[in-house]
Design goal:
Elements: H1 4-7, E1 19-20, H2 21-28, H3 32-41, E2 48-50, E3 54-57, H4 59-74, H5 79-90, H6 95-117
Antiparallel strand pairs: 1-3, 2-3
Length: about 120
């Protein structure tokens, strides 16, 4: 997620339903051509397209863009690394689930160790 210090640099997101690419560019501190490129790279970004192929982003899109921006610019991820991190956060394998799997595996290995020692 975004670091608290970084949130202070970006303007607050207004309570609108849809934002144009220019508005999102200002809200996220990223140029419009970068947003269009990120749409191709990140499947999580899918703005609504209306007449004349105009893009309209929703609040969730703006938050996702801010997260991508933080991963790439602040945390130093590559496009591939940021894509993987976002996929892992959105996918079924969350950190909590992974921790549970590790605990379960440790318990099973300890049981195997008891059997081998006896």
């Amino acid at each position: 997620m975004l670091e608290p210090s970084h949130n202070l640099e970006l303007p607050a997101i207004p309570g609108k339903r849809y934002f144009t690419i220019g508005e999102v560019s200002e809200l996220c501190g990223v140029k419009a051509h970068v947003l269009r490129y990120w749409e191709q790279e990140f499947p999580q970004l899918s703005p609504v397209k209306r007449r004349g192929n105009r893009r309209y982003y929703q609040r969730e899109d703006v938050l996702t863009i801010r997260q991508i921006r933080s991963l790439l610019y602040d945390q130093g991820y590559t496009i591939g690394g940021a894509k993987q991190k976002l996929t892992n956060e959105d996918g079924d394998t969350s950190g909590a689930t992974n921790a549970e799997l590790v605990k379960q595996m440790i318990a099973e290995l300890e049981e195997v160790l008891v059997v081998l020692n006896s």
